[in-house]
Amino acid sequence: MTKTVFDLFKALLNATLLLLALCLFLGWQFFTSARDVTDRLGEIGTRFAPIHNQLQSMTEELSALNQALTDTAAPDSAEMRFRLTRLEEQLSGLKEETHALSQLPAQVVGTAVEAAVQEISAEITTRLPHLEPCAPGISAPLN
């Protein structure tokens, strides 16, 4: 009787350790994949830095041009100012779009992590009820 209980205890301990090792391995794989995705998205985000710098230099040039037009009283400067205003509005829209694109990698990672957590929790909730019938079978030899 004591040997049977001891064998059952060893089997339970082995099963628990195997499940723990499996969970640790899966968690390690998950975080490795998440790190890889984050690194790739970071690379994509850094590609937008030159575009942002070019937009900044265009803004400065447009401001300088606007100032130069304001200082001169040429007869067609009203039309130039109107065109310059339209260009500034378009440039402002481009800035907003590039800013939104630069924030996109962080949003994608957040969404991916949430989806992965939901998928894992759904998988656990579907598999846990299947393990419940195993419990009476373990205690049957003890009776």
Number of helices: 3
**Low-pLDDT residue spans:** 138-143
The biggest sheet amounts to: none
End-to-end CA span: 10 Å
Q: Judging from the principal axes of the Cα atoms, what is the shape? A: rod-shaped
What would you report as the Rg, rounded to the nearest angstrom?
Answer: 32 Å
Beta-strand content estimate: under 5%
Question: What level of helicity do the residues show?
Answer: over 70%
The number of E-state strands comes to 0
Mean pLDDT, as a whole number?
76
Query: From N to C, what is the helix and strand string?
Result: HHH
Helix/strand/pairing category = mainly alpha
Please give a structural write-up:
By secondary structure, the chain is mainly α. It contains 3 helices and no strands. Helix 1 packs antiparallel against helix 2 (77-131). Residues 138-143 have low confidence and may be disordered.
